[in-house]
Amino acid sequence: MDTHKEVIFVLLNEFADWEGAFIASSLHSGIEPGRAKYTVKTLSLTKAPVVSIGGFKVLPDYDIHTIPDEYAGLVLIGGMSWFTPEAQLLVPLVEDAIANSKLVAGICNASVFLGMHGFLNQVKHTSNTLEYLKQYAGENYTGEAGYINEQAVRDGNIVTANGTGYLEFCREILYALDADIPEKIEDNYLFSKVGLCELIKQRGE
């Protein structure tokens, strides 16, 4: 198994299942069948099942002790559990990923977690409004100058998004991983963003 091409989704209890759905399918199956470059795996604090906000039960592939040395990136899916003391156990994983120039992507409260530990201070980023980020990230967050009020922001290998920016989050992750050609990535985004009927109208088909 080539773990170099694994993208690992970090899931905590009551994770927001919809925030990762578009990314996972686009990576694991490919934007077009047969063109997938990556494999999706899941990780949590332990290998015990985690349950999403929507009630989906996931059995993680890895825990914090069994994550492979080589992988393509971490995708941190939002939820309130990022504010728990247990979430701090994931800080070394994020530190290692950043140090080794791997993708680190966080959406909704996972972006706040990144800010809470100083990972956003030197990069352009976004979150659930600047005020929310400052309130919940606390004094370790000093990156206000780099905050951009957009649905999702990519700066090098760091991707962040607010909780409603899951489609833009997906798009920026696909770009960061060079998952397909830009035209295919944009088509993939627009198909979900505007819907099939509107897309057909726009193209005059």
Give the SSE map.
Layout: E1 6-10, H1 18-28, E2 39-43, E3 50-51, E4 57-58, E5 73-76, H2 91-99, E6 103-107, H3 109-116, H4 130-137, E7 152-155, E8 158-161, H5 166-176, H6 182-194, H7 196-203
Parallel strand pairs: 1-2, 1-5, 5-6, 6-8
Antiparallel strand pairs: 3-4, 7-8
Helix pairs in contact: 1-5, 3-4, 5-6, 6-7
How would you describe this protein?
This protein has helices at residues 18-28, 91-99, 109-116, 130-137, 166-176, 182-194, 196-203; strands spanning 6-10, 39-43, 50-51, 57-58, 73-76, 103-107, 152-155, 158-161. The protein is α/β, with parallel strands linked by helices and 205 residues long. A hairpin with a 2-residue loop joins β7 (152-155) and β8. The longest helix has 13 residues, at 182-194. The N and C termini lie far apart (43 Å).
Q: How many E-type strands? A: 8
Describe the largest sheet.
6 strands, mixed
Distance between the termini: 43 Å
Number of helices: 7
Can you describe this structure in just a few lines?
With 205 residues, this protein is of the alpha/beta class. The chain has helices at residues 18-28, 91-99, 109-116, 130-137, 166-176, 182-194, 196-203; strands spanning 6-10, 39-43, 50-51, 57-58, 73-76, 103-107, 152-155, 158-161.
